[in-house]
Amino acid sequence: VHESHASATSAAHFALVNVVSFLVDGTPVDFSSFADKPPVSCLKAIEALQRCHEERTVAKFFGACNKVKKELDDCLTDEYKVKRAENFRLAKLSRQRFEEQLKSESTSDTPKPVN
């Protein structure tokens, strides 16, 4: 369990570093190399920002792509909220199953009183 979490964390870190480097210096990002793909609903916004940066190589430093970047930020924020709500729901179910299992184990392990 810990190994897969570490792998997912390092993949997410790798993705974040690549996206940040793209946004800072315009280095193209190959999203096919990511372990976790970017949200499908945000692909148009990602492509629009990449296109804006390619077409406005100097103007991007003076805010020419800020509107497109804001749209991407809003899309990613919405995706984050959806994922967070789903993860919370799954964690709650997992916690309930765990507590039920503990309860059933504690009742089965309890010695019966002798009269």
Spell out the blueprint of helices and strands.
Elements (H helix, E strand, L loop, with lengths): L1 H24 L17 H13 L10 H44 L6
Walk me through what this model shows.
This protein has 115 residues and is mainly alpha-helical. The chain is 70% helix and 0% strand. The chain contains 3 helices and no strands. It has helices spanning 2-25, 43-55, 66-109. The longest helix has 44 residues, at 66-109.
Provide tags for this entry.
mainly alpha; disordered N terminus; single chain; 3 helices; 115 residues; rod-shaped
Quick recap of the structure?
The chain has 115 residues and is mainly α. The chain contains 3 helices and no strands.
End-to-end CA span: 46 Å
Helix content: over 70%
Largest sheet: none
Give the DSSP E fraction (strand runs of 2 or more residues). under 5%
Shape: rod-shaped
How many strands appear in the DSSP assignment?
0
Unreliable stretches (pLDDT < 50, length at least 5) are 1-9
Class by SSE composition: mainly alpha
* Nearest-integer average pLDDT: 76
- Give the oligomeric state: single chain
User: Whole-number radius of gyration?
Assistant: 23 Å
Order of helices and strands: HHH
Note the total helix count. 3
